[in-house]
Amino acid sequence: MNPTGQTIRSLIDYHADKSPDQTFVTYPETGKSHTWREFQVRVQAIAGHLTGLKLPSGVPVTGLLGNGQAALEFFLGGMYGGLQVLLANPLAGPDILAYVLDHSETTTLFVAPQHENLVEKALSKLSKSPQIIPTHPDNGPDWGVIGTNEKLLATAPRPEDVAMLIYTSGTTGNPKGVELTYDNFTFELDCIEEVIRFIPGDCYVSWLPLAHVFGQVADNHLWARYALHLHVVDNALHAVDYAKKVQPALFIGVPRIYEKVYSNLKSTLDSKAVIRIGLKIPGLKKVLQKAVKRKIGMVNCKYAITGAAPINPDILRLFHHIGVPLYEGYGMTETTAGASINYKGNMKIGSVGKTLPGGTELKTDTDGEIMFRGRHVMKGYYNNPTATAEVMDGDWLRSGDIGKIDKEGFVTITGRKKELYVSSGGKNIAPLVIEETMKAIPLVSQCFLVGDARKFCSALLTLDVSAILRDKFEMDGAHLPKDPAKQIALLNEQGRQLSEYTDSADIHAEIEAQVMELNKQFAPPEQIKKFTILPRDFTVDDGELTPTLKIRRIQIRENWASEIEDMYA
Questions:
Q1: Who's near 331: CB < 8 A, 6+ residues apart?
Q2: Closest CA to 334 of 365, 368, 370, 359
């Protein structure tokens, strides 16, 4: 199968012609579904409508739609029409949204009803507001154009044309608008095809934020190339539970997703010797593996991917022990998502794999900074030549990450260049590795290392409420609610408050013993000497996490400044 150019337009047209009656998308929250032909009609109508707006040249068509049907159809309608599309992130907050709208020069903004208040706050910060176009209340829009015969005005895009404008998470300041071309996406998919292939109808649960590159590559491109059956989940908290129903062939997650599954799996294996021992017996191993995989929604999984942040190697080991092919990869928005990946026959736990086959290149600079080259590298930062020049060294892209490449070509990330701590004694400390190690403690949800310009390392820890409910009240972790607020409510139903655990001397002593044991993996300057258990977890709403659940160091330091200083008093 090789429809011309493998563009979104050519792929949708190809599948609609070849398999018109095959269901390609299901929206479980609304119960709606569409065949390829039905979806083609919708996307063509939306594309005609969007191109008919006759936006100024080089200006994106912008949507604030979250996840779900509206976002999917808007995104694909825009690309089908050859437009430059921008999906703004509703989790970024009004200040960031205002910046993105202003910087992108957005003139027309499609808004889902649930985000109208956010838009109102953002627009109050702007001197010039874009035209606001609301979508259907149930997030399954008719767009007011479906069923019309409005002429598609745009011609097919050129490979070098900008397809998507994606604003980065902005962990260290205002986000930058990454320009990704149609060719960037085509090349990325060509490289992925060298690693893993799927067959039409294979199931995939779509939950990744569509405003981010990982979601756009997987949810809006990979499915189209292989004609996967896409199940679009509005709320990320429902992804794992829905995977148990769908049993997808592909599952993509961030470490926080797999950490929750791992914690429950390990608890089950530790408490049930018959399963733990049976997995070591050849005659029982496959039977037990299948049962365990079905329980976590991965009995049909051909490939599971983790990325966006480091993952504890123990999680990878356990998943492979039960027969789930979970592989860690690495990339950036600026590299159209993946740049290196572990895969079958090429895996080394603790690394982020080798460069994607097919033409990607990777090297380290003299200071250890990782650099990329290939057709997957962005065109540049929108309307920001200074920032583009700072990261481009000829045709090599500077990642900002520090790492190393072994003699076999496996890449290991040791930290962020801008996030390396230097102790008062002059020792370089990479916080990411230490933080991820400490998150292996069952009761710990998040770990934030403090140590820059300090005489010793300390840490802010948060507790995992689901682990408290599981370990302290013997509840089945697999059936606990995923929503943190519901977990707190369930704890309250047991007659307990979270403060009873965050303030508990016994809990502190329990965690301290485990911290001291894990400290043995690190040199003395890297070891955690003190820690504070915070009264709540880090949240996106408080600015402490990005929408992809990476920690925002500046905001955490600001929010918990007094707690940090108390550890050095």
A1: 307, 337, 338, 339, 340
A2: 370
pLDDT by residue (tens digit) across 454-484?
889 999 999 999 999 988 888 887 788 878 8
Instruction: Assign 127 a pLDDT band (cuts: 50, 70, 90).
Output: confident
Pairing relationship of beta strands 32-35 and 23-27 according to DSSP bridges: antiparallel
- Within a domain: residue 99? yes
pTM here is 0.79
- b (16+ CB within 10 A) / e for 520-531: eebeebbbbbeb
Contact between 138 and 30 under an 8 Å Cβ cutoff? The reply is yes
Q: pLDDT class for 262, splitting at 50, 70, 90?
A: confident
Name residue, tokens 């992925």.
192
Q: How many domains does the chain have?
A: 3
Q: Quick one: 55 and 101 in the same domain?
A: yes
Residue 527 tokens read as: 């070891």
Check: CB of residue 495 under 8 Å from CB of residue 423.
no
Nearest of 525, 550, 536 to residue 497 by alpha carbon: 536
Same domain, 226 and 125: yes
- 122 and 164 belong to one structural domain: yes
Domain assignment present for 243 = no
Does any domain span residue 12?
yes
Residue 139: what pLDDT?
43
253-283 burial by CB neighbour count: b if 16+ within 10 A, else e?
bbbbbbbbbbbbbbbbbeeeeebeebbeeee
Helix boundaries (H) for 194-310: 213-217, 223-226, 239-246, 255-271, 273-278, 282-296
Question: Among residues 418, 435, 462, which one ends one of the domains?
Answer: 418
Six token digits for residue 212? 């981010």
Q: Which domain holds residue 40?
A: 4-237
- Name the strand (E) or helix (H) holding 182: helix 182-193
3-state class of 294 per DSSP? helix
Whether residue 87 is contained in a domain is answered as: yes
**Burial grade of 493 (CB within 10 A; 0-12, 13-18, 19 or more):** exposed
Task: Transcribe 67-78 into DSSP letters.
Answer: SSHHHHHHHHHH
Residues 179 and 46 in one domain: yes
Contact 46, 116 (CB under 8 A): no
C-alpha to C-alpha distances, 396 to 87, 196, 399, nearest whole angstrom: 27, 27, 9
CATH of the domain at 129: 3.40.50.12780
